[in-house]
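Could someone model manganese (III) ion with this protein?
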Amino acid sequence: MSFELPKLPYDYDALEPAIDARTMEIHHTKHHQGYTTKLNDAIAGTPLADQSIEEILAALKGLPADQQGAVRNNGGGFYNHSLFWRCLAPEGDNAPSEGLSQAITAAFGDFDTFKEQFAAKAAGQFGSGWAWLVADKSGALSVQSTPNQDNPLMDLVSESGTPILGLDVWEHAYYLNYQNRRPDYVKAFWSIVNWEQVEKNLEAAKEGRSLLC
Ligand code: MN3
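Reply:
Sure, complex below.
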């Protein structure tokens, strides 16, 4: 089996002005496609070719040294972007539902405090990486960040849990529109979060299901 670049559930210009069409097109057709192709190259002809992406990410430690780096970087890149696209939607009246709001309030006190803590993780990630809203098996939420294409599903990172919302803070995700102004990109991100999908992700995480199905 090989992995395929997922189609976006909206047009490249659908997230403007928060994320411009050119950035979306390059990000999807070049960056995400690149991770997908390189992941397939790295697992071809190995036992990993029969595993799900979640199984692959949860068992990186045991891989041979000459395979581990490529699978970590490209498997992470494949997964992280697949999740990221699904967590975005065109600007609208979208807000967290009651169930998700309760989980956010339980973890952070209130919605604004959650946004501040998430934004701080996104701004504070030195260099390239991701900010995450993460659920543990009970559904309890936390915010985390990881470098490069790592994520909390990986057995090689110190964070653990299931990321249910992610924000790509690599410069390729925002530089055309925002240059060095990462905090402005993070602020704009809130206008295009697909909270309905995030709630579905939380339910899937609690039930141990794949978030990408
Ligand atoms: Mn990216």
